[in-house]
Amino acid sequence: MLYLLLVSTCRVANASGSISVGIPSLPELNRLLKRKRGSVGDGNSDLEFFQAGLLYFVENKAKCWWCNTDSCDAAMEMLHLFSIAESEHVIRYKTALAEQLTECEDCIVSYYASKAELRKLYAKQYKPNVIEPFFSGLGDWDAKRIVRNLANIETKTNASWTSVRIALIDALSDSANILFHSSVAAAVTKYAQSSLRSGSTLDLGSHLLPGFMALCFSKDRIIRTWAWRSLKLATNRNMPASFGMVEIVFVGILNHLATNAKFRTICPVSSSGYGEHLGRISFSFSADEAWHGMRVALSRLDNDFKARLVDRFDKLSEFVCQSLMRIEGTEFIEALRVFGLVIGAAEKSFVWPQISRNVGCTPEDFVTRIMGCPSFRRRFEIAADDTSSKDQLDDTVIAARDRQLRPVLEWITPFIESLHLPKDSVAIVAILNELLFKIRPDERVSQVNAAIATHTAMAIITHCLKLPTADRYMPDGKHLLGEFLLANYHVISGIAQGRDALSQSEMLISGAENLTELMLCEDLANMFKSFSEFSETAQRIQDNPDLFAEFDAKDREPIPILLHLPSVW
Fold it and tell me: pTM to 2 decimals?
């Protein structure tokens, strides 16, 4: 049990109710802290430190306990007081701490970081059944003061923006505040709704706050939009959150999606592994635009964080893939974007074997389903009020439209990287056939969109030409796209030589020329390697004529070149 449970409150104060020694300096306080940590279990060292801490932080009315690096460690150690019965001095300490957490943004950030650090320290000293009640109690105290602070701000007609920012940053700095305390979620939602409807943007600047991940799935559209915008606009790219809190957000939304799906689905959340977390979640998730929320949240996590998340939910790829087989419309597009993020972070060796086994979907099946889906095709087709079919193939127009088509194309790169090549190359050929021979010539597709489909296809071919040798060549020595390129190179050469309608685009002409040059260089390298092998064999035969009887030129494989087209050379 935490040893402070054994510290009697009467030892903190003398009989008169006041602290018995003078106010220490910060160096003196840190000296006592060092002695306390070096004498674990020494009641006298503990008592001296906490007496000095109460004097320094409370009686001295110290400013910025947490953002001051010299006092932060001592302030963190003082949180031990939450493990003892309340007394006059403990109550005054908590009141002073609550006041501190309304005055400085940096102190808020450091406070939550210190709580996480304290949990790590406790994990080395105490058992979970001791640690969890302590942090649960501290979390309840945080929730009450956050709700009280937001209520006080609401009653003030002239509350400063600084106080509002601090209160919101406080509430959103830890996902647990929103997830485990419905009162905090309700207070934040109420204040934000009122402010946003009155015209405020509630822009929290560079603070990329974990609580926004939970609010991405709020039942209130205004709150969801605020969370999405805040996550997207934050200048700090990566989410400064503990993995556990991000994990719990996904536990909640994935469980919600799986249990409310209109079709039988693989559940990526094991109730046996997450029962405790699911039991504590009081936040009410909404399935409305849930895939959008997942995409926004995942996009703010760095690659290592996403990889840990995908590894933790080892059926996540299967769940998203299976959902894509059943859904349509905007939901389909957002789920497709989530799929790209998920497989981009997944372990390559497991993704498609698991999906094929449990969902019955091969990479080629997936391409056929996705690129044949009406929701996918409609993105390329001309709407009744669309004037893009009249657009000249100006590269500026193409670049602008490319951003609009990115949601249905950005999954392709992580998809290719998730394949086992060259074995799964048929899936890449399926993508190229869809782009070049179904979307590009479709009369319902504008020239601008056809140009983007063609440019995407050329980018895929270029990517495949730069793969490691082991990935781009079949066991028989042929390139994984060799047959496709031999049969369809005329499309690329037509653009490069100005014989295609898409040759109006300088970007496409340049791309076709660069791709041709890359293929010719590949052929030259293959021919050089092959002739070098022949030369080495000839030299060995010349040195040892007896080898000639063993050499059968008829069994030699042809030189594996991509372009058997003399006119190109």
Answer: 0.81
